[in-house]
Structures are given as C-alpha cells and as structure tokens.
C-alpha cells in the first residue's frame, strides 16, 4: 500500500512538472496574438489621423481661397465706385495699373486663385481663344451686314446682323451659329472668347472671313487667326487706358464680381463638405479610443490571470504606446 501511494505521488509530481511548459507556451502564443491585434489597431488609428490631417489641410486651403476671393471682390468694388465720377487720363492710367497689380497677385505661387479667375485646386479648363480686339462683332451698327466665316475644316458659318442690333442679340446669334460647329462662345470685356471640347483644333487653325464693309472689310475673304485669350483682369486693364463709356465698363467689372461670387459659393459648399467629413472622423476617433481602452483593460486582466511573468514587460510597453497615441490625438 505504501509503495502504491509513493508511485501515485511520483506520477502526480511528474504530471505537474510536465504541465508548466504547456502553460508558458500558451501564454506566449496568446501574447503574440494580442500584440498583433494591438499593432493592427494602432496602424488603423494612425491611418485615420493621416486622413484627418489631409482634410484639415484641405480646409485651410479652402479658407485661404475664400479670403482671397473676398479681398479681390472688395478691391474691384472700390474701383467700380471710382467710375461714378468722370475719370481723367491720369486716373484711367492709374486704374489700369491697379488692375495689373491685382493680376500679379494671382500669379504668385501660393495664390489660391488663378489669373483665369479659377480656383487653384480645380482641374485645368480647356484652352480659350479670342478675336483680335480690333474686330468688333458685338457693338450695334446703323447698317445691316452679313459676315461669312469658313473654318479650317471647310465648314461655312454665316452671321446676319440687323441694323441697330444690340450686343446681347448679336452674342446670342453668334453662340447659336458656332454651336453647330461644336464651338462655345462667350463675351469677356466686349471681346469674343472661343473654346471647344469637341473640336479644339478648329480654334488653332486659320479662318477665312468676309464682311460687307461694316464690321469686316468687303471684297475678298481675309485670313483670320485667333489669339490665346487674355485673362479677365488683363482685358479690363487694357480697356481702362482708353475708357470711353464708364457705365459699360462698370458693367464689365460687375460681371467679374459675379464670377467671384459664384466661386465663393462653390468654396463655401466645399468647406461644408470638409467640415462634415472632419466631424465624422473626430467622432470615429472618440469611439475607437473608448473601444481601445475597454479592450486594453480586458487584455490586461486576462494576462495577469495567466500568471506569465514574460507578459509583464509587454503590458508595460503596450500601455506606454497607448498613452503616446492618446497624447498625440489630443495634441492634434
């Protein structure tokens, strides 16, 4: 009987001895799995912070664009009000110089607005072309006239202007006729500006034009080549030097201001989208921090219950990393 008890005691001792390495291996495996999970959560957190920083940067550029648009609008408004009074030759020259200075500001590298009066963040628009300033197809004339335009591909366009026809009516007619050729037309500071998404090559080719001696010379067709369109402020600066009709010029300034107002509405709409996205990211960060704190607490409790001494440095290191991440989030 005594021998049997001794054998039984030895067997139990051997079983207890053999079971210890199994516990250590299990604890080590659990620690590696939990460490990988922590690393994945931390990488996910850093990824969200990167997106948050990108949105914040876009928001800063958006605010800069709105501020620059407001300043330019106010400066143009001051110039427009100056035209309420008759302008001398020296004052017209000064007006032209002020407009040139405004355009130079838009050409600076950090400008949020392009000289074409487009947002720097917007995609590049299609190239625009214009008629020579000496060719005026918009101003009313006392005599009717028919103007023929043959494009580079041989297509013939015909414009019929009635006597005394207004600039608005003439522009609408020109737009309708050129639309058949896939060409868009607009008036910019009394200058016709052409663009085409479908047929851009037509604007770079020479045209054959023929008039009846009113808007264009009569006789044989003449060759006409479009010029690269000038920026709106450049056109206004050129016209200011020989300013005859101040009210019409005020209207041109008002059109530029309307374009700036449209850009301002666009910028404000984009800012609201960015703010909504930023708020959503901040709420996600708060939720993730709370979930991470609960999960870390549960993992700590489980690891302490295993009694594995090797997990103590890992717990301390994990706590330090989590603390650093939280401090970084609050600092941002």
What keyword list fits this structure?
332 residues, alpha+beta, Immunoglobulin-like, four-stranded antiparallel beta sheet, 6 helices, 8 strands, 10% strand, Flagellar hook-length control protein-like C-terminal domain-containing protein, coiled coil
Strand-helix topology:
Blueprint: H1 2-82, H2 89-106, E1 129-130, E2 145-150, E3 156-161, H3 167-179, E4 184-188, E5 191-195, E6 207-210, E7 222-224, E8 227-228, H4 232-241, H5 246-306, H6 311-331
Antiparallel strand pairs: 1-5, 1-8, 2-3, 2-6, 4-5, 6-7
Protein name: Flagellar hook-length control protein-like C-terminal domain-containing protein
Region (Disordered): 7-37
Keywords: Coiled coil
Distance between the termini: 75 Å
**CATH overall fold name of the domain at 128-228:** Immunoglobulin-like
For the largest sheet, list the strands in their spatial order.
4-5-1-8
- Helical fraction equals 55-70%
Query: Can you count the helices?
Result: 6
CATH A-level architecture of the domain at 128-228: Sandwich
* Residue share in β-strands: 5-15%
Shape annotation? globular
Protein name: Flagellar hook-length control protein-like C-terminal domain-containing protein
Keywords: Coiled coil
Organism: Rheinheimera marina
Please summarize what this structure is.
This protein has 6 helices and 8 strands; from the N terminus they run ααβββαβββββααα. The protein is an alpha+beta fold and 332 residues long. The protein has a 4-stranded antiparallel sheet with strand order 4-5-1-8.
């Amino acid at each position: 009987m005594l021998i049997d008890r001794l054998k039984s005691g030895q067997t139990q001792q051997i079983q207890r001895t053999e079971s210890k390495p199994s516990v250590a291996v299990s604890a080590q495996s659990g620690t590696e799995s939990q460490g990988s999970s922590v690393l994945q959560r931390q990488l996910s957190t850093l990824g969200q912070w990167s997106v948050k920083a990108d949105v914040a940067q876009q928001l800063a550029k958006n605010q800069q664009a709105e501020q620059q648009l407001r300043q330019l609008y106010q400066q143009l408004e001051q110039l427009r009000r100056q035209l309420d009074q008759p302008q001398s030759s020296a004052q017209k020259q000064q007006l032209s110089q002020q407009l040139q200075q405004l355009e130079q500001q838009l050409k600076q590298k950090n400008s949020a607005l392009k000289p074409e009066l487009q947002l720097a963040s917007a995609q590049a628009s299609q190239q625009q072309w214009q008629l020579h300033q000496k060719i005026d197809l918009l101003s009313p004339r006392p005599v009717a006239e028919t103007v023929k335009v043959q494009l580079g591909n041989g297509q013939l366009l015909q414009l019929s202007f009635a006597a005394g026809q207004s600039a608005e009516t003439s522009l609408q007619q020109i737009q309708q006729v050129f639309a058949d050729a896939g060409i868009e037309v607009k008036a910019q500071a009394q200058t016709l500006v052409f663009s085409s998404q479908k047929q851009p090559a037509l604007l770079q080719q020479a045209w054959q034009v023929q008039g009846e001696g009113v808007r264009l010379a009569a006789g044989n067709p003449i060759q006409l080549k479009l010029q690269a369109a000038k920026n709106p402020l450049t056109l206004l600066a050129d016209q200011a030097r020989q300013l005859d009709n101040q009210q019409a010029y005020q209207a041109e300034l008002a059109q530029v201001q309307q374009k700036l107002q449209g850009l301002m509405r666009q910028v404000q709409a984009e800012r609201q989208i960015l703010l909504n996205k930023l708020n959503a990211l901040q709420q996600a960060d708060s939720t993730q921090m709370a979930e991470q704190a609960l999960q870390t607490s549960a993992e700590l409790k489980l690891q302490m219950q295993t009694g594995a001494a090797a997990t103590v440095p890992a717990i301390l290191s994990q706590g330090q990393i989590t603390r650093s991440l939280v401090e970084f989030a609050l600092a941002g």
